[in-house]
Amino acid sequence: MKWLCRLAFLVVTVVAAGLTVGPVSAGERDMPGATVESAVALARRLSPELAASVLNADAAAHRVGAAGVQPDPTVTLQAWDVNSRGVGQRWIGVEQQFRLWGKTDLEKGIAQADADAARRQSEAIEVDLGARVKTAYALYGAAQRAVDLSKSLKQRVDDLLALLRLRYGASSVDQQEVIKAEIEAANAAADVARREGDAKSAAARLNALIGRAARTPLAAPKGFRPLKTKLTLAGVQDLARSSNSQLAATHAQVRAATGAKELTDLNYYPDITAGATFVQRPTGENSGQFLLGFKVPLQYEAKDAEQRAASASLGAAHARNEALRIRLDGDVAEAWFRLEAVRKAIKIFEQRQLPPARLSVETARKGFDAGTTDLATLLESERRLRAIELELLAYKVEEQSKYADLERLAGGSL
Fold first, then answer.
1. Global pTM value
2. Which of 113, 171, 268, 357 is most buried when burial is the number of CB atoms within 10 A of its CB?
C-alpha cells in the first residue's frame, strides 16, 4: 500500500508541475523540458528502471506476510488390515509441526529487514535517476545556449561580410579582407551546425533518461535551475549519513544478517511435531492415538558450518556498511570541494574576463567602423568573447552537475 501511495504521489507531482506553467498551447503543455522539475517528475513516472525497483520492493514487502508462519498441518487417511473381506481399521489423523524458540519471529524480522533494504535500494535508484536527469538537463540547456551564441556570432560575421562586400572597390577595403571574412563566415556556419548537433544529442540523452524515444520533442529550456549557495561540508555530510538511501539499505542488510545469525544459533533447538489419530474399527470400540516427535540434531558439523557462515555474513554486512559510510564522507567532500572551486572560477569569469571581453568587442567594432581597427583585430575580439562565453557555460554545467552529485549523496534535494 505504501508503494501505491508513492506511485500516486509521483503522478500528482507531474500533474502539479503541469498546472504551474503559464498559459501555453496544448502541445507545449505536453512537452517537458522547460524546467528541470518537469523533466525529473516525468522521469520518475516513465523510467522502467525505477518502475522495476519499485516492483521489486513491493515484492519484498509482500514476502514479509509469508515469512515466520507455522507449516500447514498434514491430514492422514490410513486403511489397516485390508483383505478380501474389506477394511479392518480406518485411521484418520492430523499432524502439525511447530517451530518454537522464537524462530518464526526471527524469520519475519529477516523478511522485514530484506523488505526495508529493497525499499531503500529503490529510493536510491530514484535519487540517482533524479541526479542524472538534472545533469542531463543542464547539458541540454547549455547546448541550446551554445547554439544561440554560435548563431549570434554567425549573424555578426555575416553582417560584417555584407558590409565588406559593399565597401569593396569603393573604398580602401581590399580583396584579402573580403576573403578573410568569407572564411570566418564559413567557420561560423560550421560551428552552428556542430552546436545544433550537440543540442540534438543532449536532447536524445535527456529523453533516454526520462524513458522516452530519443527523437521525442522537448520544450525549450528556461535556463539553469537556481542553486543554494550557503552550504557547509559538515552539514552535507551529516545529511548524507542520516538520509542516504544506500547507507540505509546497508543498515537493513546488517539487521537481516543479524537475524540470520540468531536463527542459525537455534539450529540445535529442534522443532516438534504433534499429532492425533482417530482409529475406527468395524467391530469393537473406536480408539485414538497421540503423537509427539522431534528431530535429533545429530548433524552437528553441518549446523556448526551454518553458524560460521552466518557469522561471516554478518561481519561482511558490518564491513560493507562501514566502508560505504567512509566512502560516502569522502565522496561528499570531493563533490563539495569541486563545487566550491567551480563557483570561484565562475565568479572570476563573470567579474574579470567577461566584461573586458565585451568591452574589447565593442571598442573593436567602433574602431572598425571608424577605420582605425583592422578586420583581424575585430574577428579576434569576437572569437575571444565567444570562447569566454562558452567556457563560462561549461563551468555552469559543471556547477549543476556537482550540485546534483551532492544531492544524490545527501539522499535528496539540499
1. 0.77
2. 113
